[in-house]
Design goal:
The protein is mainly beta and 118 residues long. It has no helices and 10 strands. β6 and β7 form a beta hairpin.
Length: 118
């Protein structure tokens, strides 16, 4: 089974996709420019989606994950403050994003495909 590692690089404004080999070595297989300070990231496996919080435009970018682990941007939604933490309810029907800077939390319902709705 292929092991994939996703790393958000806030200062470099990108997400790196690495393949972890059985010997512990890693190979960079993709680098996605996010055009913003990316942090945090979270994944819903049942939809094969990665969610990335970005500043300064206060948004959540959604990336589909293909069979090789590579990312493709599929959606962008805006939130009220700079994202600090992303989580989901137990059934993965809602995305929660806290913003320590704005002292708030946003709640975004997810459609049946896992895409945040405004």
């Amino acid at each position: 089974m292929k092991k994939i590692v996703y790393i958000s690089n806030s200062d470099c404004e990108n997400i790196e996709v690495w393949e972890l080999n059985k010997n512990g070595k890693m190979n960079l297989i993709q680098k996605i420019n996010t055009y913003g300070n990316v942090q945090p990231i979270s994944i819903i496996k049942k939809h094969n989606l990665l969610y990335a919080g970005l500043r300064p435009n206060n948004r959540i970018d959604v990336y589909s994950i293909n069979n090789n682990g590579l990312l493709n941007n599929t959606n962008t939604s805006f939130i009220p403050g700079p994202p600090n933490y992303i989580s989901f309810d137990q059934d993965e029907n809602f995305l929660f994003c806290s913003s320590y800077h704005k002292n708030c939390i946003s709640v975004s319902p997810l459609n049946k495909y896992g895409i945040p709705q405004q």
